[in-house]
């Protein structure tokens, strides 16, 4: 076989040109595949970000919004963000749908959302995605995958590990009460579902009753007080998050009942009661900085970076071995707030690189 020498013949040049064109098309295809979902159209920095909050009253939500605002301010200094549009649906999923629609009508570049319903928002979120808006959904997730990314800890793992700790503390035998977050919220439902296989595998554990309550200490204390009057024998409390655990402990204390092992979350009130009362406790956290990370990831997607459609954030464990390290920073957080872990751009880039 003879190889063509330079100068190239017309045929060789045509073949070379065709090969180059194919390579360019292939490169374009790779680029298109690598681009984050929903991103299309002529969107350029500085961007407008929409934060469609389901409700702002709980302290966890206030702290989370603060991380969003802080990240937006950093991105403004980088010249990447222009404005932040904030709405509050006050717990109403239909109102949240209207707020998201208004953001679509305003042609924001990205929408950050904690869903008030796992299914009701599907249509409006799909509409936003189809219009080229980056949609980041964190914490309470929607059913649809027509968005840029879902960001969350593993709710099933959360419930499984909490349940296993309590089972181990009770040596596989005992009567427990389960305290859930609001029904119909994906985080709350996911944690409960994650706990069930552990409970099924340990027949010596009897679920006396369970209840749903807001992620706030006051309603949780009220709910647990009623349950204490009705149930004289309780060996443990499987509390699946928020300040619910603090409310449960306060109810036990108010009634003069002996404290039992309680699971929970990084609510400052719960961690302080745990230490003060010398009780047996276990906790993890839903980091408030999931909000800040969602903003950062949305901007990275708009800048052409690849963003996976599912981003799993590892959950830490808080137990007797490290609770003091959280309490040492307690004064940096509201009395009814959450002592969350530190975060920075290096952590965010690591999560994006999954």
Automatic annotation (TrEMBL):
Periplasmic binding protein domain mapped to chain residues: 50-306
Family per record: Belongs to the bacterial solute-binding protein 2 family.
Species annotation: Paenochrobactrum gallinarii
Alphabetized InterPro entries for the sequence: Peripla_BP_I, SBP_2_dom
Protein name as annotated: Ribose transport system substrate-binding protein
Keyword Signal: yes
Primary location group: other
Signal peptide residue numbers: 1-34
Entry's Gene Ontology cellular component terms: cell envelope
